[in-house]
Write a structure and sequence with these properties.
The complex is a heterodimer of chains A (117) and B (114). Chain A is mostly beta strands and 117 residues long. Helices cover 0% and strands 45% of the residues of chain A. Classes of the chains: A mainly beta (117), B mainly beta (114). The interface between A and B is medium-sized, with 24 and 26 residues.
Chain lengths: 117, 114
Amino acid sequence: GAGVSQSPSNKVTEKGKDVELRCDPISGHTALYWYRQRLGQGLEFLIYFQGNSAPDKSGLPSDRFSAERTGESVSTLTIQRTQQEDSAVYLCASSPTGRLAGFYEQYFGPGTRLTVT
Amino acid sequence: GESVGLHLPTLSVQEGDNSIINCAYSNSASDYFIWYKQESGKGPQFIIDIRSNMDKRQGQRVTVLLNKTVKHLSLQIAATQPGDSAVYFCAEGYSGGGADGLTFGKGTHLIIQP
């Protein structure tokens, strides 16, 4: 079956431009997570969506970062006025239930590699 | 907040040997642990998980051991193969809620030598 997909796979943008990254979770998965992974580093939690509940935005590094999700479908992560330190791989993951019902494994997409020049 | 750390950033193992990747965690409230494998250019892939009411769980060629007394987690890979070369992340979580998703360690790069 189809896994988590992300687009674009690579994005090069100029400093100061806005970018929008897309995530299509596995159908039926209620929980969706965004992570950031800098080169050679671990995963940094950004935001968590669970069904129609208010998202947990506690990991967003600044107000330039925002994310939306329509119901239990696609999510977009938007970075406004990009800075060079935003360069990283942005990973999306989905899971059947999410942490409030007990953890289940998160299925990751391939990521979007963002380069800010 | 508390975070997960790894003892060794790089581990080199001969093909066919067993490998052990270690992980220390500091949040005593964590009750769920996962190991992920990440190959170059790909997203992390689930390997095996364990809940805090267990101290050992086995999968295909992999075993996860949890020692809650010393807050230590390990991943054992039996009879390593070239395809096992990757970065391995441990992650912890707390099912009782909290601000974060899973907390990941920085990873251990496993290199399988022929």
